[in-house]
Every structure is written in C-alpha cells, then in structure tokens.
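User: Show me a protein chain along with its predicted structure.
Assistant: Here is one chain, sequence first, then structure tokens.
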Amino acid sequence: MKEAKHYTHIVLVGISAEKMIASLRQFPVHKIVTVTHCGDENKTDIQNSIKKLTQTFESLEFEKHNIETENILTASMQLLDIIKQETRDDTVVKVNISCGLRNIGVSAYIAAFVSGISIYSDIPEHEDEDTYILKGILDLPPIPIKDLSREQMDILEKLEDGVDSMDILISRMKPNHVKNSNKLGRERSRLSHHIKNLKNDRLVETEKCNRCLVIRRSELGEIYFKGKKIKDMQSQKNKK
C-alpha cells in the first residue's frame, strides 16, 4: 500500500495574506515554509501577513527562512538549499509565488525550474484594498535546459570548492592516472576540453593565480549543480 504524500509549500511572503491563503487552499497542505527578504523582520505589514497566515493554518507545521534578495543568483542558491531540505521520499514540494515580488520571484523561478519543482501563482478574479477573490491557479511551466553529460556533472561535483590545478581535479576523478605520465597527459587534454565547454556555458570559471590555474564552479554552475541533484532525487522518488 502506497504511503500518503506529505505536501510542503514554500511560500514567498508579501503584504497580501489573502493571496497566499486563497492559493494555498487549492492544494493539500501539511507544512508551510515561509520565505521573507532580509529586513522584512522589521516591516509591520509583512509580519502581520505572516501572523494571519499562521493563524489561518494554525494546525499545520510552519518553518521560517529569511534570504538575500539583492543578488538573484545568491537567492536562487538559498532557495535551492531550502528545497533540498524539504525533498524527501514521501514529500511533494511546491513553490508559491503569489506574493513573490521583486527579485525573489525571479530567484524562485530559477530555483524551481533547475530542480524540477512545481511552482505556481494566483489568478485574481477581483482585487482591491478590501477584497480579494481568487479566479484560479497559474502553474508556471518549466523552461527546458540542456542536460550535461554524466562526465561533465562528475567534473562539477569533483570541483567541490575549487581546485588549484588540473592535476588536483584528475586526482579526484581518476587517482590512478596521476601515477602514469602517459595517462595523465591524455587526461589533462580530455578534461581541458570539458572545462572549456563548461566555461563557455558559464558553469565553470577559471583564474590564473601565480603559476596555478584555479578552476571552480561559477554561481550559475552552483545553481545548476544543486538543481540537478534535487531533480535526480525527484526522479528516484518517482521510480519507487
């Protein structure tokens, strides 16, 4: 017998609690993760909105997060960390951007489509200062992006926090090649080709430092790598 699914909604908090509440009521909900901007803890309207949300769904589990908003890519990575934390075998994760204003809405869309997580917003029937009526839900479609080869993903993974030379990367990927000069030379040439392609895709960046070539994942590379890992977790869940 299949276990019942647990639904977690990651909600970008804005000043309109009604928009969040009405859109959340269209789905099963077991846990709500609220996401606010840095500095929102001092904004009365935002805090009132959170209070109304928690009072409406008082029987549910809540968790709060506060993220960076000035840098879209940094915010995307922080959202991916939240998504990964909530992704489990029995859990369906959705992102609610009904109140996702400013940069955080863009960051949420990036995080959702690289990880394959469902993202949705509201369609208002009527909205003014005193009244909000929901017409429906807008499911935002993912934009397909090319998948990297298994070897290129392996390179991104083995880069970790960066390496100071190609040989260090080779030692992580194929340690036996380091002891064989012929194999080492061929591996340098092969990895250089992959690094060049990853750099062209803006997933990797390199920097000459003294006599060393520093190779690291770019911010975009970090986002892609984290998102792909979550997407793979989702794929494994669906096979069970």
